[in-house]
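Help! Submission page says 'invalid entity' but I think these are all valid:
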Amino acid sequence: MATRSSLATGIGRVLIAVYGILALAATGRSVVQIIEKFSFAPFAYTLSAVAAVVYIVAMIALIVPGRFWYRVACVTIVFEMTGVLVIGTLSLFDRALFPDDTIWSYYGLGYAFAPLVLPAAGLWWLRKHHRTAVSADPAPSTASASE
Amino acid sequence: MWVQLVIAVVVGLFAVVVGFVGWKPNDYTVGSLVLVELLLLAQGVIALVLPAVGSPPKGNGLEFGVYAVSVLLVPPATIVWALIDRTKWSTVVLGAGAFTVAVMVYRMYQIWFALN
């Protein structure tokens, strides 16, 4: 078995699973909204679609080992954290911008605040595994390292 | 629907609790998710048959369909993710999957009867 990212062990697996679920939820919702009524709330729906893509990339970045994907994970999770905070706040004060809800509206209220808690947990996890994750670049040879 | 919901929640709680206790995925935890999936498949068939016999959804059909397809993917994906790394956290993952199914089933119920 190839060396697995230290990010994908232990509680990290639950983190990745929840990212997967959120990615699925966000993507499904985006698909329906964009197909059916894009003109109703184009900004909101585009935002949801962007969020969905970012969640998918974040999930992949947490699974695949190596320095590059570690950085991708950092960037995507910071992006999401910023997104949920900014959009969450905007959704409270500028309803006209959001005729329909996005995944980040009201800080992710519609998703049990998972969009708020998850990036925070993700950042904590990345911080915790910083040293091991960036030093664990996968070996180019096929030599396997047993866990 | 309520049967499914209760079962999915119970399975979720069961898996999360035993996961934290330290069980690795076993026949009971994985099996209960298989049960959840079977119920979902049965529900999927019913959802296909009902419109055909004149009882279509009151709510948004496309949204229901997207949920229905997605929810069928959740237990298998959860099981695969849990089994390729058999630790107690994997059992917690099984629980998370079951809870997700519970939420999605409830949403599908709302969409079908246009309760939202």
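Support: the input was valid. A stray whitespace character was the problem, and the output above is from the cleaned input. Residues 57 and 112 of chain B are 5 Å apart (CA to CA).
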